[in-house]
Structure formats: C-alpha cells, structure tokens
Amino acid sequence: MNSHQKTRRKFKRQGPFHVYIVICSDGTYYTGATGNLKKRITRHNQGRGAKYVRGRRPVELVYAHPYPDYKLALTAERKIKTLTRRGKEALMVLKEK
Fold it and tell me: Which structural domains are found in the chain, ordered by start?
C-alpha cells in the first residue's frame, strides 16, 4: 500500500444496531442507523453528523428500534425513509404502545 491510500477500519457488522428517527429544530424528521445511538445523537447535536441535520440543530430522538445486525438495520432504515411524515408518526405511536 502506498502513502496515498487510506487505511480502512474494519466495520463491525454484528449488532446491536439501531434505526432511529430524530426531530430537527425545524420540525422535519431525519432517519438513520447506527451501532452507537447515544454517540450518534451527540454527534448530530455537535454538527458532526449527517449534513442534512447540521443546519437543523438541535435534534431530539423520537424513535429507536434495535436490530441484531447491520443488514437488517439498513433494510429497516431504507423502508422507514420511504414512509410519509404521517407514516413515520404512526410508527412512533406504535412503538410507544
């Protein structure tokens, strides 16, 4: 490997992983997946998370669901991202029960 190539850290693909939804300061929702939920929310609020969230801080966690591995979490995240706002809100209500 030459000096211009970056070394990649090994990505942990076994869980737990969480799919989460945060509500931004402007009232919009952002959906993501992470292996460390507390750290990710902190990073979002520091402006070091997703670009979408940087100008919409602070964020508040409104939904989180654990998954045993990365692939299941990623699949769930993609499905949630296709939901309408009402669909996401219905998902949050179901999770509360």
Answer: 15-96 (3.40.1440.10)
Q: Are 46 and 39 in contact, with CB atoms under 8 Å apart? A: no
Please tell me whether the peptide bond between 16 and the residue prior to it is cis, using omega within 30 degrees of 0.
Answer: yes
Q: Which of 76, 52, 49, 50 is nearest to 63 (CA)?
A: 76
pLDDT tens-place string over residues 6-52? 666 655 666 689 999 999 999 999 999 999 999 999 999 999 988 99
The pLDDT value given to residue 35 = 93
H-type helices in the chain, by residue range?
37-46, 51-54, 70-81, 85-96
- Residues 65, 75 contacting (CB under 8 angstroms): no
